[in-house]
Amino acid sequence: MQLGAIMIVNAELFVNDLPGQLIGSLEPISLVNGNILGVVHNREKIIDHRICVNVTFEVDDKRLEELKDLWQSKDIVISSLGSVHETFKMDYILIGDVNAQYIESLVKKINEATTIDQISVSYSSKSIKTASHTSLISIKARYEDNLDKIDMILRRECKRSNVTYVRGV
Amino acid sequence: MKAFICGFGTIGQSVAKILKEKQEFFLDRYGEPLVVVGALDSKSFTVNPDGLNADELLSTKKTTGMVGDKPYKNIKDALNAVDFDILIEVTSTDIYTGGVGLDNIRYALKNGKDVVTANKGPLALRYKELINLADEHGRYLLFEGTVGGAMPIINLNKYDLAGQQIKSIRGIFNGTCNYILTKMDDGQPFEQALREAQQQGYAEADPTSDVEGYDSACKVVILANSIFGRNATFNDVDITGITSINSDAVALAKANGMVIRLIGEVSATKLEVAPRLIPRGHPLSLPGTLNTAEIITEYAGPITVSGIGAGGPETASAILSDIIDIMDVRIGE
């Protein structure tokens, strides 16, 4: 199976107030190779004879639907499901004949080749009066592989335009 | 055992001094001394089969600028003038040809001598050839002092991390560049920081090898060959120096909680020296002239070592440990 991106999920579940139900609500997470980060058994919050369980876990985003099906098959009610994706961040400084138009063309090439979650560009203040700046590009990508692709593009393009690029670690 | 010190600059002089100071240690550990029977610099040499006096060598060098009273035309004549067991090869590094150091190491190994060296050039250019030569003649060629000065890295990987896969090593391998970049963190422009490094004695009059990343590249090659079993040479390294790093870039990095450092990186597939953005507080963000390395291992996770990357006594300490390794095998503990 092809792996997706890792996402961090916070779920509010309601389980029947019977022995073994707490464990029963957590088992499906293991079945989809999820990694449980925290569990709160909220005995004060009871709705329709069901007890609230808050669980936070990491899971491959491609297996989340499978997990929901597993919970439903076990008569576990999913009250809410919030998630954030884990992202991989990399910073690059470009030194040389770099202006906004050049950065724009680089970003376009990156967008064509890969998916990025977020990109921000800042310029050095000292040389802002001239057309050329030293620029810092911060990129957040959902997959680590994307960073390798971005790195290859920047390396190639900067070499072509005689721009020094300094990347993070 | 008998040693010949080939090269009597800062490192050679420190080796002579430390070997003299450690005579009691050698007597305790092996029941015999380590005698320096020959010393040579670029102009002269001196030998004594019964042992040279380190204080006299140092004093002669200081007063006359030469270690000995005999000139030579061919270093081999000097090396043939006395019988010895270990060649301590610390002539100056030539990263383009390997220089006299390469000839000296070849000659010593072929003639049945063990070799300890801090000379990067020969190993960065002819690693495989020299290791094969040592194996062929049943000799040791040890070179802990070539990477990171006092910072233990080659023997650390070889002995203490033996058996496990080393996934990658990245680090600061040039104290001069790190000094310059640290000064730039404080707002100095590159040229001024370089001049200060030269005035402080950290940078050579011709700083090309340091600031263009060549010196770091030699170390990356030595690590690639000795730890990753690669057959790399200097020309295989993707090198970017620090000459194009300007104050703007350093300030921009600083404003975003980072510093710029010249990082050498080596793995099974990578050989690179380049300026990199390092978050403040990261082990590779070290300031000043220190060297540091982050070793990513199979079982032990990341291991970070750091130490003074250059200097006479510091490099001599690495040479001393290599000499002891050889004596442990040749004489036994």
Give structural attributes.
heterodimer; A: 169 residues; alpha+beta; Alpha-Beta Plaits; 2 domains; four-stranded antiparallel sheet; 8 strands; B: 333 residues; alpha/beta; Rossmann fold; Dihydrodipicolinate Reductase, domain 2; seven-stranded mixed sheet; 13 helices; globular
Write structural notes for this entry.
The complex is a heterodimer of chains A (169) and B (333). By secondary structure, chain A is an alpha+beta fold. Chain A folds into two domains: 6-85, ACT domain (Alpha-Beta Plaits); 88-167, ACT domain (Alpha-Beta Plaits), CATH 3.30.70.260. Chain A has four helices and eight strands, in the order E-H-E-E-H-E-E-H-E-E-H-E. Chain A has helices at residues 21-31, 64-73, 100-113, 144-160; strands at 6-16, 35-47, 50-60, 77-85, 88-98, 118-123, 133-141, 164-168. Chain A has a four-stranded antiparallel sheet with strand order 2-3-1-4, with helices on one face. In chain A, strands 6-7-5-8 form a four-stranded antiparallel sheet. In chain A, helix 3 crosses helix 4. The two termini of chain A are 30 Å apart. The mean pLDDT of chain A is 86. The mean pLDDT of chain B is 94. Chain B contains 13 helices and 13 strands. Chain B is of the alpha/beta class and 333 residues long. The radius of gyration of chain B is 20 Å and the shape is globular. The longest helix of chain B is centred in the last third of the chain and has 19 residues, at 312-330. Chain B has two domains: 2-149 and 313-330, 3-Layer(aba) Sandwich (Rossmann fold), CATH 3.40.50.720; 154-308, Dihydrodipicolinate Reductase, domain 2, CATH 3.30.360. Chain B has a seven-stranded mixed sheet, with helices on both faces. The interface between A and B is medium-sized, with 20 and 23 residues.
Count of discrete alpha- or pi-helical segments spanning 4 or more residues of chain A: 4
Instruction: Determine the strand fraction of chain B and express it as a percent band.
Output: 15-25%
Please give the radius of gyration of chain A in angstroms: 23 Å
Which structural class is indicated by helix and strand composition of chain B? Answer: alpha/beta
Number of structural units classed as domains of chain A: 2
Task: Describe the main β-sheet of chain A briefly.
Answer: 4 strands, antiparallel
C-alpha Rg of chain B (nearest Å): 20 Å
Number of strands of chain B: 13
Q: Tell me the fraction of residues in β-strands of chain A, as a range.
A: 35-45%
Query: Which chains make the largest contact?
Result: A-B, 20 and 23 residues
CATH fold naming of the largest domain in chain A: Alpha-Beta Plaits
In CATH, the homologous superfamily of the largest domain in chain B goes by the name: NAD(P)-binding Rossmann-like Domain
Low-pLDDT segments of chain A: none
The second-level CATH architecture of the largest domain in chain B is 3-Layer(aba) Sandwich
Major sheet strand order of chain B: 4-3-2-1-5-6-7
Separation of termini of chain B? 14 Å
Count of helical regions of chain B: 13
